[in-house]
């Protein structure tokens, strides 16, 4: 099982702490690509948090491209932390562009023009 430590005194939400610790585990090779993670309820029991907290962290990491959910097979590591960081920054860029009146097509044109 991956080693996850939470800090109750940390101001970050618990799900963010869980996600950060799993990211760290992936970055340090503790959880490798293709490896299955323990079920969310088991992780929650070990961490002393609600299973929904763990599920929220796992969904965040799935959205970052680090984890994959497969029916009947659980949650597996599929990506590297760098990919997750790029995806996060991309989402931030898309949101920034939206706030400034640019749609996705216009943003793609801007990015394509950078080559």
TrEMBL record:
<dbReference type="GO" id="GO:0003677">
    <property type="term" value="F:DNA binding"/>
</dbReference>
<dbReference type="Pfam" id="PF00392">
    <property type="entry name" value="GntR"/>
</dbReference>
<protein>
    <submittedName>
        <fullName>DNA-binding transcriptional regulator YhcF, GntR family</fullName>
    </submittedName>
</protein>
<feature type="domain" description="HTH gntR-type">
    <location>
        <begin position="12"/>
        <end position="80"/>
    </location>
</feature>
<dbReference type="InterPro" id="IPR000524">
    <property type="entry name" value="Tscrpt_reg_HTH_GntR"/>
</dbReference>
<dbReference type="InterPro" id="IPR036388">
    <property type="entry name" value="WH-like_DNA-bd_sf"/>
</dbReference>
<keyword id="KW-0805">Transcription regulation</keyword>
<dbReference type="InterPro" id="IPR036390">
    <property type="entry name" value="WH_DNA-bd_sf"/>
</dbReference>
<keyword id="KW-0238">DNA-binding</keyword>
<dbReference type="GO" id="GO:0003700">
    <property type="term" value="F:DNA-binding transcription factor activity"/>
</dbReference>
<keyword id="KW-0804">Transcription</keyword>
